[in-house]
Design a protein that fits this description.
The chain folds into 3 domains: 10-130, Potassium Channel Kv1.1, Chain A (2-Layer Sandwich); 214-508, no CATH class; 545-635, no CATH class. The strands form 3 sheets. The chain has a 5-stranded mixed beta sheet with strand order 1-2-4-3-5. It is elongated, with a radius of gyration of 46 Å. The chain contains 27 helices and 9 strands. 53% of the residues lie in helices and 7% in strands. It is an alpha/beta fold and 637 residues long. It has helices at residues 41-45, 49-57, 76-88, 96-108, 120-130, 136-145, 150-155, 158-170, 214-217, 222-235, 239-253, 280-293, 300-316, 320-331, 339-342, 356-369, 395-410, 418-425, 437-449, 455-462, 472-479, 486-512, 515-522, 526-533, 536-576, 601-607, 615-635, and strands at residues 10-14, 17-21, 28-32, 35-39, 67-70, 193-196, 199-204, 585-588, 593-596. The longest helix has 41 residues, at 536-576.
Length: 637
């Protein structure tokens, strides 16, 4: 407040002393903190019961001005100036930003109706109910100003009244309780602005969703935020909205979460600037408080937030109990996690790049909680919903794929001990993986980054792989992998040959009767058929080789038959030509030629009159029929 000097009536100050300029000299001094106020007794005593009692109980020396010291005065010097103005009848402005301090100071000084009609305490109470509790903005500003006098404001129920009002308005149409708010559906003007009593205000609609209040409540302190969330839970506010508000509060006050969450670009939209950003100690307490407020729910974005919170907890050295609770929460929904989220940097004294111990505990929580139902967020919630349209898969299969990808990422860490890698690879039960190709890839990456491992260590590491569950491509790669121990390569070759034999047997069985394939797939060979279907490229090659082999056998047989028939036809021609023949002619046969006599056409015609065709026609007809039969035999394949 600017000093008022050289005025006939009013307040002014010189240094740390305030004076009231009037016709009568001042007759009392009041000390607030380190500031002295030179005032008059009558205006103060007529309004302030506490000052009246203190003057009655004082034992000042005669001739000295009475001196009153107000210890721990709510609001300090600025608030006492407002109180003094009220006592002197000077007009002042009561606003949401100074209301709490004035209300607490009025109660401190006992400015009740017994010491003056329409006293300040009654005026403050009326202002609270008529103005502040009816406006979203004023209510938040009032709640923010409670942080300076939190204990006193809680005693006067200001905090509870504001929190109840905010929780009620958060789940109500904002157009019903004050302007300007975030969304107005029917009040929007054609140009997109908000109409207020028919007047275009120029304000724009911010959002049409239920998260319009998230940023607003992020501006209050953590004790007040905790109280507000608990009241919202008691009122039955949607759990998705509560979780979203908590996550948004954490993102705005914990900078570490901004890096690991997708929608962290929005900064806190301050309604008024109070206080400073939280320190590192405050952030640690803030994280632990946020973790305690989070609901026991399941959702993709929620799981991502939890993994970011665990990462920040390691940075801030949060309590061990807080970390354990975050690990348990993540383990309960590990099937919704991502590889990026699991790559938690190690902040311990070890040389490891990643905190594999934490991930192993998370996997153990998943295994122990598997089969137990955890309530998911509403499917209609965009922020927390799972993938829509994704093929159904069991959580254990998803976690197995996730863990294999994680092992492949950390396998290149040269400081990672083989015992840790092996323990993490074996942390899931055997039934979680249908195929071990991903696990084999991770082991191969680890062996490539750790060439100094002994033969025994490599064998122990490779024992986590079930070679019966490797695909043909993986078996082929493993058979030529110099990084694998010789004993492992032998096992791979054995199972590869076993799979090849079973696959070929199945192919032969399928070629006998196509109708039996479906029945066989539904019967005892269902498992083998499923494996063959997973190896389409390899099975197609085997089937083509088998078909070609059968074709060659049938072709060889038909060629032999044709050679026999051609010999018999040649023999018949020779018999017909023995009686008479003229000049010789060449008849081709295979490679080279043979000199044969030419049949007398007259004798041949006379001898074949009964058949109705010439010998040449008979031979051509026979060859044509044989050729067509030969082509039909190939058309079957």
């Amino acid at each position: 407040m600017a000093p008022i000097k050289h005025k006939s009536y009013g307040f002014y100050h010189e240094g740390n002393e305030w004076f009231f300029s009037a016709a009568l000299p001042t007759d009392i001094t009041v000390q607030v903190d380190e500031t002295l106020f030179h005032l008059h007794k009558f205006p103060l005593v007529s309004k302030c019961g506490k000052i009246a009692k203190m003057l009655e109980e004082s034992h000042d020396n005669p001739g000295e001005l009475p001196h009153i010291n107000l210890f721990a005065f709510p609001g300090g010097t600025e608030t006492f100036i407002i109180i003094a103005k009220f006592c002197y009848g000077i007009k002042f402005e009561l606003a949401p930003t100074n209301f709490v301090a004035v209300y607490c100071a009025a109660d401190y000084l006992e400015m009740t109706e017994g010491y003056g009609e329409d006293n300040l305490l009654a005026k403050s109470e009326a202002f609270l109910h008529r103005t502040i509790l009816r406006s979203w903005k004023d209510c938040l500003l009032c709640l923010q100003s409670c942080e300076a006098v939190l204990i006193k404001s809680e005693e006067l129920q200001i905090v509870n009244k504001c929190v109840n009002a905010i929780s009620m308005m958060a789940c109500t149409d904002p157009s019903l309780f004050g302007w300007p708010m975030m969304m107005y559906g029917s009040l929007q003007s054609p140009g997109g602005s908000i109409l207020w009593n028919g007047i275009n205000t120029g304000a724009r609609i911010r959002s049409s969703q239920s998260d319009w209040w998230f940023d607003d409540i992020s501006c209050i302190s953590i004790p007040l935020f905790e109280k507000l969330i608990n009241v919202m839970k008691a009122r039955g506010v949607r759990i998705e909205s509560i979780a979203g508000a908590i996550m948004n509060y954490g993102k705005n006050h914990l900078p570490g979460l901004s890096r690991w969450h997708a929608d962290l670009g929005n900064s806190c939209r301050k309604i008024s600037s109070f206080g400073l950003p939280p320190s590192s100690v405050d952030q640690k307490e803030l994280l632990e408080c946020i973790e305690s407020l989070l609901p026991e729910k399941k959702g993709r974005s929620f799981c991502q937030f939890l993994m970011g919170a665990l990462r920040v907890a390691n940075i801030l050295h949060a309590s061990q109990s807080c970390k354990e609770r975050l690990e348990r929460r993540i383990g309960m929904q590990l099937d919704l996690a991502t590889i990026d989220g699991l790559l938690i940097p190690s902040y311990s004294d070890s040389d490891d790049l990643y905190d594999t111990d934490s991930v192993e505990r998370i996997v153990q929580h998943f295994v122990s909680c598997e089969g137990k139902s955890i309530t998911a967020f509403s499917p209609s919630s965009i922020e927390f919903g799972t993938d829509v349209g994704s093929p159904p898969s069991s959580p254990s299969k998803k976690v197995a794929k996730l863990l294999d990808g994680y092992l492949a990422e950390i396998g290149s860490d040269v400081n990672l001990k083989v015992e840790k890698f092996r323990a993490l690879a074996a942390s899931l039960p055997e039934s979680s993986r249908s195929f071990h190709d991903g696990l084999y890839r991770a082991v191969d990456i680890y062996l490539k980054a750790h060439p100094w491992l002994s033969e025994r260590e490599r064998e122990q590491l490779c024992n986590v792989i079930s070679y019966q569950k490797l695909s043909m491509d993986a078996c082929t790669h493993a058979a030529h992998n110099n990084r694998l121990p010789l004993r492992v390569v032998v096992q791979v070759l054995f199972f590869e040959q076993l799979q090849l034999r079973n696959a070929v047997a199945s192919c032969y069985h399928a070629s006998d009767n196509d109708n039996d394939i479906a029945a066989t797939a539904e019967g005892t060979d269902n498992l083998m058929t499923g494996r063959i279907m997973q190896r389409d490229s390899w099975v197609s090659v085997v089937r083509e080789n088998h078909v070609l082999r059968v074709d060659m056998e049938k072709m060889r047989s038909r060629v032999g038959e044709l050679e026999q028939e051609f010999g018999s036809i040649k023999h018949e021609i020779a018999k017909l030509g023995r009686s008479s023949f003229s000049t010789p002619r060449l008849v081709s046969k295979g490679i080279g030629c043979k000199l044969l006599p030419v049949v007398n056409t007259q004798q041949a015609g006379a001898s074949l009159e009964t058949t109705g065709r010439s010998p040449r026609q008979s031979i051509e007809r026979t060859l044509q029929s044989r050729h067509s039969r030969h082509r039909k035999s190939f058309s079957l394949f």
